[in-house]
Amino acid sequence: MKKEIAKDLLEIGAVFLRPEQPFTWASGIKSPIYCDNRLILTAPAVRGRVEHAMAELIRSHYPDCELLMGTATAGIAHAAITAELLGLPMGYVRGGNKDHGRENRIEGRLLPGQKVVVVEDLISTAGSVLEAVAALREAGAEVLGIACIFTYGMQKGLARMAEAKTPYASLTDFDAICEVAAEEGIIAAEDIARLKAFRDNPADESWIGGKK
Predict the structure, then answer these.
(1) pLDDT value at position 209?
(2) Which residues contact 212 (CB under 8 A, 6 or more apart)?
């Protein structure tokens, strides 16, 4: 499944690899990869495969799930579609409290002790998704874990999730993307080591230009 989803994401440009012309993140870090899983929503065939795969992922990893909560904003649509497939209720967690009305952070009905899975589109350093997890736990939810479409597998993110005692499951990951991209001729086989060097230490830019 990981390679099939990876192929889909590469095909529609939701994940784009450019090791020779790195992207610049907001933090200033140079990156060989750009990910925009919102594009999945505009590709019906891929969207269908992704959402059915997400439903199966949740069934297998979190069989006791009672409620899906999407992260704002990219996880909301995926949570809604997957919840429909599973016949489950859903809601979402805002990035911060609303500044009007009831000033909600969590939108949708959440009962104390309810078993929740957080739906995220991608995980890098895991900061934002763990903020959502913390808000849900503070509101009384039992967070079973995170279900995401793509994960970088960065050590910072993995360490944060372990520290927060929050499991995660992902449809595809950085290694699968690299492998499929090489098979499809999107990158050269020798670029895989460079890409993984970035993933393992994003602050070290020695991978740029093929430098070891």
Answers:
(1) 72
(2) 206
